[in-house]
Design a protein that fits this description.
By secondary structure, the protein is of the alpha/beta class. 36% of the residues lie in helices and 25% in strands. It has helices at residues 15-21, 45-53, 65-77, 95-103, 120-134, 139-152, 163-168, 204-221, 236-249, 289-295; strands spanning 3-8, 24-26, 29-32, 35-38, 58-61, 82-87, 110-114, 154-158, 185-191, 194-201, 224-232, 283-286, 300-311. The protein has a 6-stranded mixed beta sheet with strand order 10-9-8-13-11-12, with helices on both faces. The protein has a 4-stranded parallel beta sheet with strand order 2-1-6-7, sandwiched between helices. It has a 3-stranded antiparallel beta sheet with strand order 4-3-5. The longest helix has 18 residues, at 204-221.
Amino acid sequence: MNIAVVTDSTAYLPDVMRQQAGVTVVPLHVIVGDHEYTEGVDLTAQALATALRSSARVSTSRPSPQVFLDTYERLAAAGATAVVSIHLSAGLSGTCDSALLAARQAPIPVTVVDSTTMGMGLGFAVLDAAAAARQGRLVTEVTEVARTRAAASRVLFYVHSLEYLRRGGRIGAASAMLGSALAIKPLLTLTDGHIEPVEKQRTTRRALVRLLDLSIQVAERSPAAVAVAVHHLDAEERAAWIVGQLADRLAGRLTGSLLGRPIPGATTSPRQPPDPTPPGQPLLVELGAVAGAHLGPGTIAVVVSPYPGSPLE
């Protein structure tokens, strides 16, 4: 069986990892003023940050069912016999709904997975699914690998302001913080696919230190080795500081491979690609336009993703 793995652009997989894993990405769209852009194609994060700071009207849109159907048909024509299509939380976007509508008309079986997460919380799950597909696993096994990895991941993030989440209507229970939004620096998380508050700090510095500490606590509670990614929008220097701290303080807990380790019990496939990432290093990944439109400039997120079946030495 030749299983193709599809995801969407909010996984924010670095290009080299996406290409080497053989993952197909369907992009979401961002509308700035009267212009529509394709995420990852024709709108830079810096341009988006500038538009947001200038109070330009910014919104996002999911891929249409037809775009997904075209993708599934193209993969079938290229030899795929089934597709596992893994996407950002259905609680944040209608992307899964579009994929489900397309799956009903696809010429080959398509299994759609709601990851209940996004960013590299989704990305790590996609990489594991792609590894399982390369190892010749069944559709049910590839699907379970993706769901298990996504469910194990924790996403923690700092936003400089709740205003952008409020505009997009995706603030959820974090709305309780709105009354003092100008005076606090919130830390948030994704719970069951929805944005929820963690705690609030009075300064950016305290918030980032606390974000670092909470991320380390999550990693240290894991019985398995972990992969870590740090996302940012227009906050590279601060994000790089967090990457350095995590690399130092989680030495020995970080996985040496980010492309998806062999699934327990599987025979390593000769198609397993070389891993382009240095061992034991967190990824530093810029947030794309869709997440950035809702979270705003200055956002920093940490994804801690335990690898199931990979106990610490």
